[in-house]
What we know:
By secondary structure, the protein is mainly alpha-helical. It folds into two domains: 5-134, Arc Repressor Mutant, subunit A (Orthogonal Bundle), CATH 1.10.10; 217-341, no CATH class. It is 63% helix and 5% strand. The protein is built from 16 helices and four strands. The chain has a four-stranded mixed sheet with strand order 1-3-4-2. Strand 3 and strand 4 form a beta hairpin. It starts with a strand and ends with a helix.
Amino acid sequence: MKKLYTAYNKDVQKYMTGNDLSSGKKKTIIEHIEKTVTLAGESFERLFPTRTKRKDVMDHIIYLLSGNGICKVSATTLAKKTDCSVRTVNNAVSALKKTSEVLVGGLADGKNKYVFVLKSHKNFKAIMKDVFYIDADLITKQNANHVAEQENSETLETLSVDSEKTVSNINNPFNSINSLKQEKNNYKESIKDSIENELKESQNDVQKEFERINEYYVNEYQEMMYYTIKSSSFHYDLKMNASLIGFRVGSNCDKDMFNMALNAVGKIDRFLKNGGTISDSVQALFSKVYEDNIKTSQKTNTSKSEKFGGHARKIPFYNWLEEDGSKVTLDDKITNLEADEMGLF
């Protein structure tokens, strides 16, 4: 589980006075990060492609860190400074996290702002102690423990699979396997319900909601969906349940699935704005429409694959990462038949 670092505005301000920002220092810091990323076997170009808004966002964040090693700034401000969407900002921040050279936290009071800390800065240990009240040496230990937990988790899952195979080989009844699978599914559903309950409880508290999505979101597209809904002119009910919808996008979401998820949100938005009422929860309806979009896409691809000799055409992807939210394009209308099929009536 990811650790979320939060700080209070007054503590951050201790390091904001006399902030000597420097383009020269910024360049040196970026070169250091690039070398570190490359040595770790990662592509810096993949994280921050040349001549993209994502790289511009990273560049501005590092500039703000070039002085005292810490800065606080909102996603909206970064978007304005670099002339891009909030989604692009959050995507850049996710990439910055992967470098392991910048600690990303949040402001616990006031407006919802990011707090960035440069780990290679001479002030890092002092900042962690004075601002976050944490021993900087513990961060390294926590990272090591996190890796160990992942390895243990993979080992446990392997043992679980092996256990199922053993039961199957000895008793040979399918009921034993199905029982184990059912227990596993029930356990997953229980965890899912628990997380969603926490997300619901934090809906009226900006800071708590920020903490929850940083704790439970594991896919950049989940974050993109959350911030897309929050920053666009969608219906109030969709905005209120943005954290739950983002969670239901799923950890396996990719570009094409994100497109289908956004299309589902658009359909529900138009239905609600046209006076429609929902008998179930907004997030439940989203899951239904989202799954329906995925099934329809799969059927279409299968049909095209058969028609064109096994070569299916991919769903065109509009680059939501780089374009402004005002350019979002969805189906203009939703018919009564379509609404009925989605269970809206």
